[in-house]
């Protein structure tokens, strides 16, 4: 028994000595020692991936395979990820409000394919999700393996900003904004483009922001639009997306259904799925109309992808400041510049062309409107324009009777004026 008592420490000493000898030998054995540990870390990562997939993907009654490689799961509406949120657990989706904001039917026509039904790539499969379900884009293991961090999967890169100008954070904007009233929603039409992305970890998007709170730490935002993000989606297709946060993008909120919160109510549109067709440079333009408004009855923020498809809502209880109203509304483009090459990114914003090129070439927002205290849609007057780096991405706006308040925006990123 005495022999066996001493055997364990002696064996441990022998193994420790052997590992030390291997680590100090000139045959690359330190790499082998590291490799011996790597399977354990990889196993842990795989377990985390499986657990996260289990949270994000819910049991479906039907799955539709999209021609672009997506899988659209038709999930019973009461089983969607939103209802895992502690404040929403046990609830069921609300019916869309019976009434839209006043002046809802005011013209949004323009020189584009306005009024056309919004199509997504998965619609080409010729199948639909049944009534009582919602169409959810499935998150795959490949999606998670592309993520730079599982802990921040589905979130914008963390940032701290003191005002709209995000210089130094990697996030660059060309936006129009209003901030002189209390706001209860916004509407605009934006053409859908396919900007080139300079680095897979970067993105380019065009959206509406509805904001309240301070930019430093308690910013509440609701966001919706289209986005190109190879890291998030695995391709360069423009995709319909949503976003929200209550703490300036630090710990709360996410894209689409990648965390609990946004409640989808439609089986016709899948958040995160590709939009088709796209605008063609010097050719036909295609735009979508987005409406975000706060329902006066229940206080929730609803999203419509026009014409007429109510996508879902952000429950009022998710927010602090936005539980009441917004203090700012923004329209425009954003890119993330990872700064990996020591020069400015070549990621494009909008169509990748400067606003001076005008219609058919530059990206645009038109018929910019806000929802006021009386639940009326009115023109977004006193619009201010801001471009963080005009030599990279610029913005120029105006007003006419055809497009209302509008602007052209975007640019190529790295060029002679943006080294």
Automatic annotation (TrEMBL):
This is Uncharacterized protein. It comes from Avena sativa.
